[in-house]
Amino acid sequence: MPTLWLVCLLLVLAAAGFVMGRARALSSAGGDARTLHSLPNYYGLNVALTSLVPALAVLAIWLLAQPIIVESRVSKLIPAETVPEGSTIGLVMSDVRRVAAGLDLVVDAGLLTVPEASGLRAEERDVRALLGEVGVALGADVRPEVLAAAQRSRMLNHTGGLLMTGLVTGLALAGLGWAYVRTNKDFRARNVVERGVLVLLIVAASLAILTTVGIVLSMLFETSNFFRLHDWKDFFFGSTWAPNFRGDSELSILPLLWGTLYISFIALLVSVPIGLFAAIYLSEYAGKATRALAKPLLEILAGIPTIVYGLFALLTVGPTLAKVFGKGGLLGVEWMAGATSVLTAGVVMGIMLIPFVSSLSDDIINAVPQSMRDGSLGLGATRSETVRQVVLPAALPGIVGAILLAASRAIGETMIVVMGAGAIAKFSLNPLDTMTTITTRIVSQLTGDTDFASPETLVAFALGLTLFVLTLGLNVLALYIVRKYREQYE
Amino acid sequence: MTDLSANAAPAKRHGASLLEQNARTRRRNRAEARFRGYGIAAIAVGLAMLLVLVFNIVSKGVGAYSQTFVTLEVELQESKLDKKGNRDIEEIKKVSTFGYAPLINSAFAAAVKEGGLETKLKAKDQAGILSKSAPAQLRDYVIANPDKIGETVSFRFLANSRVDGYLKGRVTRDSIANDKSISAEQLDFVDQLAAAGILKKTFNPDFILGSDASDQRPESAGIGVSMVGSLFMMLVVLALSLPIGVAASIYLEEFAPKNWFTDVIEVNISNLAAVPSIVFGILGLAVFINYMHLPMSAPLVGGLVLTLMTLPTIIISTRASLKAVPPSIRDAALGVGASKMQAVFHHVLPLAAPGILTGTIIGLAQALGETAPLLLIGMVGFIASNPPDSIAAGLLSPNSAMPAQIYEWAKRADPAFYERAWGGIIILLVFLVTMNTLAVILRRRFERRW
């Protein structure tokens, strides 16, 4: 792990720089800290930061950029006509990567020396068997151009690594030297350090943007790859979801969207009445003691990980429902084939969302001014009439916002539907049928060995992007409504 | 106002006094009681669900902590294990687990004879009640202690998961009718062994400390190694999200000018907090694994993905606690000549620290229970058999995480794994409850009301 060692080296250099800078500043002041412009530690920090920060930044950028550069260089080595029928350059490149990683392992295992590995010829030696020895299984024999590309990529990565180590260490030393030379008693170290720290703070704050950009870009990029391989009309307007890893799949989002919305609808059907009534009771009727006890207890439900709900759906709720509606069940009807169904997932998700709806609505109901209640009660209305005719209409926009937020949660929920909803994509109105959702399909298309050149894998990114846009839209709308409503009473 | 009461004759009410409710008032009062009842019912349903959930977890999961063991005196016959008698470790290693099976068979025969048990089972079927790991356990012991060859040593073997299920009530004589791996005679034999005290159900520390096992051996699966995986992920999350989150919040709360850039960041953070967790998994797969070629299934990658997910939570709570520090503190610091940066780092930040810590612990607890993104970066579906031996290996070698391990067990066909999934959830919840309690205690203890 040379990168780790490099980082350690940088940290050691920075620590040395701190001690040296501090000592130099003190000695330039003749040992009397009072004549320094800044406190002695600032001089040390200045040297340490000047040495560490640019070097770390270059290291990070280099680590990000190297794979793209190597990839683009290496893919030029593979002529378009040698790409086999029915394959793509992307597939060949993933072969190249696998061979290159295998060669690394071979060298690590001591089966070949470094020059032997780079001089290897596919014509002379059975590379597939060689890689098999170190546990890298290949689907077919290694073709000469793939081996050459793999060797080239290893060489580029190797020189890249050396260059990076040299550059980063040099930069750290240069920074250290420069800052050290600048250190004397009149140097305004505090101002410089504080400016540097402010830049670091800004960078940290921008990471949030970077994450969003990363999410959007990574999904956009793979989605555009997907639409190059697959017809967009089928994705948005088709009616069947039937992935087939031998190709020629029908990949339409509509049946998945239907399942997602149906399950979310049932979840809201469970959680909204319960959550809303709980919130009304807690804010309008309950005494202090009841509130202090019931509210945190309800919120425990929100803190339970979704895997627990998933297991609850799969092993408890599903089988219970099957005992009632299934074959040989209590009702004597045969409406349910297995434990997984829309109802199973919907009910459990509803339980999960109860505290979500109740605490959001509670906040909103509490924000309704007391004077409105007093007015209504003073006219002789009962409490329930006050709630129904005054408080709820006033809180309605906020409650709608809360429900939208809950809906966005339900649409993006994964574990409960993966374990409770089933795997068959279809349009059906029967809540006891198994159905599948967008998140479930993302999980199933992306777990296990993924091949980034097939539409069956890439469709997951298109699904993810749809999910992202859907939940983001709901959130923005909900936050807008809630905020607007809050302003009304402030 | 006074003339109103003076002039108007007392209005004639519709034949009723104030002391007696008329039909309409009664109806309204009934509606009131009903409405109140709905509220109570809603809370009762919510709490009942919580109760059902907790009861379900505990009742189904407790079984995983005890396991059926068979204690046998095994004679480590020299003729089988070390034919030449020179105790050469290489030669001993050549004896495969098949070579150890007869030793167990004869140990059973001895136990039957000694206990005066009656069974028509063949020795091989008697040994069939043990876990498939029994010969391997014996072999590991012999390779570790070659000098014990020839002696008789007492071993505690795991019983087969069916036998274990029989003692726990999961497997009944009806349910094994079509089961090839155990017969009714074997269950009779188990009853006899249990009566003789050879077979016992006791606490099983291996469930908490051990590693996952293959589909064939649910009885020896444990959650320990995936716990280590979770620990390493949490270390990564803590090391990255705390400094970055605090730095971002300090900038946004203390330094940021009001401009479009700050607005974009703020909107971004509040939206990221609501992005479905699986989307972060997709990001992790596309960026960290497919693009940066970090190893699949590594806790480092899991930690990075969870960091991105936890950051908004930490930023939101840190900003709230920074905001709670009154401006007078800043003014006082600035007034005695501190720079803005010094005022923030020397005075505001220490005062906000308890709140920040509480928020961080809650964020970590959230990350600990998160499963969906881990499925996408490959933290399910394989068995890490040993805990990592160094920090680098802990970060980079494939491992699982607690929730991913639980999911993996829940997916397997053998119901014996379900018990372990519930048992794993107990451990997960113990961690979460501890972390949240810690957060509450910290808040109570150190939070200052200004």
TrEMBL record, chain A:
Bilayer-crossing regions: 43-65, 161-181, 196-221, 256-280, 300-321, 333-357, 390-407, 458-482
Name of the protein described by the UniProt record: Phosphate transport system permease protein
Gene: pstC
PANTHER family per UniProt: PHOSPHATE TRANSPORT SYSTEM PERMEASE, PHOSPHATE TRANSPORT SYSTEM PERMEASE PROTEIN
Keywords linked to the UniProt accession: Cell inner membrane, Cell membrane, Membrane, Phosphate transport, Transmembrane, Transmembrane helix, Transport
Family indicated by similarity: Belongs to the binding-protein-dependent transport system permease family. CysTW subfamily.
Main location per the UniProt record: membrane
Matching InterPro entries: MetI-like, MetI-like_sf, Phosphate_PstC, PstC_N
Localization terms from the record: Cell inner membrane; Cell membrane
Chain's role: Part of the binding-protein-dependent transport system for phosphate; probably responsible for the translocation of the substrate across the membrane.
Cell inner membrane keyword on record: yes
Domain ABC transmembrane type-1 intervals: 257-478
Pfam families: BPD_transp_1 (PF00528), DUF3708 (PF12501)
Transmembrane helix as UniProt keyword: yes
Membrane topology term: Multi-pass membrane protein
Automatic annotation (TrEMBL), chain B:
Pfam family, one: BPD_transp_1
Membrane topology: Multi-pass membrane protein
Residue ranges crossing the lipid bilayer per the database entry: 35-58, 227-252, 272-294, 300-322, 343-365, 421-442
Residue segments, region Disordered: 1-25
Main location: membrane
Listed InterPro entries: DUF3333 (IPR024573), MetI-like (IPR000515), MetI-like_sf (IPR035906), Phosphate_PstA (IPR005672)
Name the record gives this protein: Phosphate transport system permease protein PstA
Species: Ruegeria aquimaris
Primary gene name: pstA
